[in-house]
Amino acid sequence: MGEFELIRNFFAAAPCAQGGEGVDLGIGDDCALLAVPPGEQLAISTDTLVAGVHFADPCDPFLLGQRSLAVAVSDLAAMGATPIAFTLALTLPTVTADWLQAYARGLNRMAQSCGVALVGGDTTRGPLSMTMTVFGRVPNGLALCRSGAQPGDLLCVGGELGNAAGALPLVLGERTAEPAIADPLLAHYWSPQPQLALGQALRGKATAALDISDGLLADCGHIAQASKVSVQVERDRLPLSGALVAFLGQAGAQNAALSGGDDYVLAFTLPSVELSPLLSEGWPIHVIGRIVAGQGVTLLDSDGQDITPQTQGYQHFRESP
Amino acid sequence: MGEFELIRNFFAAAPCAQGGEGVDLGIGDDCALLAVPPGEQLAISTDTLVAGVHFADPCDPFLLGQRSLAVAVSDLAAMGATPIAFTLALTLPTVTADWLQAYARGLNRMAQSCGVALVGGDTTRGPLSMTMTVFGRVPNGLALCRSGAQPGDLLCVGGELGNAAGALPLVLGERTAEPAIADPLLAHYWSPQPQLALGQALRGKATAALDISDGLLADCGHIAQASKVSVQVERDRLPLSGALVAFLGQAGAQNAALSGGDDYVLAFTLPSVELSPLLSEGWPIHVIGRIVAGQGVTLLDSDGQDITPQTQGYQHFRESP
Prior knowledge:
magnesium (chains A, B); alpha+beta; PurM-like_N (chains A, B); CATH 3.30.1330.10; homodimer; four-stranded mixed sheet; 321 residues; PurM-like_C_dom (chains A, B); Phosphoribosyl-aminoimidazole Synthetase, Chain A, domain 2; 24% strand; metal-binding (chains A, B); ATP-binding (chains A, B); disordered C terminus
């Protein structure tokens, strides 16, 4: 048995590969088999993380295991889907038992937290990268698409923004900070919590939704384009963590919130009548702007002045190979 | 808009991304949405191909586009599933319009041939590799698993074996051959045809099935292990192409058929009573052995002597990075 077959057996024996609701057949055959209840659709998303592009190499394999799965499952949250399962295509330059065990521990922890089972995948030799494909289910017609935002809707987010971008200089070792600042930022970067319960609570209420991965302004641009509307973001309403403001200052924290990637917080549009019931249920919803007729994204200051930056959006951790 | 976002738009506009039966929502949102009819299960498989490991680099991108999808869809055939859709996670070191267009043409051709729609994926910068995840549907309880083979069943394959392994020295430029020999071998390597119709015809008839990717003996070992039986393979009943025998000689062709990977022909076990009706329907089924009580795989010569080789199975195109 070759070492890569040993790895396949290793993952097949992992706690997260031991079945789950909706999994009719897991690892070990030509295909996995999932059950989708009548009246529901299957939601699917794929994400690739490449060493040196999406994460520093080397990095802590336990944290990488958590993060690689969380990033993918966040797309299920953005769709309002209930998670079922995932596949893992893992490419490794060399096989190191310590690395694999730590990676699998991180994966298991996030899989348990999100309620997904590992049902298949592939393990191959090559430069370090991983592709996760995640599966969820959502009642017919209730998936949260990007295309339904209407003029008059509120623009909302499900939590503080910019923490992952704030963490990046810490991850790269370019800066240091005291634990009270560094710890919450790094926790957000390495272990983002997909907002699955919030996504499900927004079914039939939010008119458009996505998870913020490219940066708030860039991702609002995706809603604007898909919904054929204009999105107005109010800079002074952005929810910022105390750690982020302490680390970057108010202006730096706002910039991280507007343009930094990797937050994996939900952004969504909501008819104003839907807001109060959700707030009274205790959902962490922050109104940060609104939808108007038009096209594109506009950033406003507290006086309503247009302060939209010329360049928006997304940079990978490092854009060159 | 960055070059990788341009690529995403390029694939979103590709013919194979224009929807299809069972695709409720394709490329462009956080998730794709598939419909699975009541009474059916969703079948899922993931395959990664890495440059320099699973294919020579450089190679013809059109052929690579065809082959990368065919390899993945073949797992749906092995499960008896009807194809619906696939996702593509493509990692590229540089963006070259010519390469992308040729790759997409190959992908489109195979997608059309197999009846699958591109519903999502990811495009990232990094060392060349691709992960395909394919989706199909199969009536509840009729999927062809590896675990149902019974003593007394016939061991069958769906076509000639060894052609892809025979093609490898041609692909690598280590040998040449006249077109009458080289062309059919290379065609099999670069454009394997997933045996989807055969897989569906075997529903409710075959007791176990898989597609031969690791080599016949190694893959029979997977059936033996999953079904807890012994698989007897008769060397002199292996179906070999004239081109393969002309290129490698009888003994070399038999070795390629037994141990070479990448055939993507179905191997399956069949109660003998099921054989005649399938043959009279015209399915290309070759009986190459049988299932007996026990465990493992045995290779027999024409006298029934055990000639099982010591090492079985599978080598990647090149095992080192």
